[in-house]
Amino acid sequence: MNENRQRAAHMENTMRWWLLSAEQWRQKWLNVRNERNRLKEENIR
């Protein structure tokens, strides 16, 4: 029983880590894309 609880806790931590990593990745590339688009706009003008 205790082993199942440990596995569940470990899985929960793993899922949390993946969610945070995915969110950070998404934010990073959103910023990169926005910066690229901003520079494109400035060059067009």
Explain what you see.
The protein contains 1 helix and no strands. The chain is mainly α and 45 residues long. It has one domain.
Low-confidence stretches: none
What number is the mean pLDDT?
96
How many domains in all? 1
Rg of Cα set = 20 Å
| Order of H and E elements | H
- How many helical stretches? 1
Query: Which structural class should the secondary elements be placed in?
Result: mainly alpha
Shape: rod-shaped
Would you spell out the secondary-structure blueprint of this structure?
Blueprint: H1 2-44
Q: Which terms would index this structure?
A:
45 residues; 96% helix; mainly alpha; single chain
Quickly describe the structure.
This protein has 1 helix and no strands.
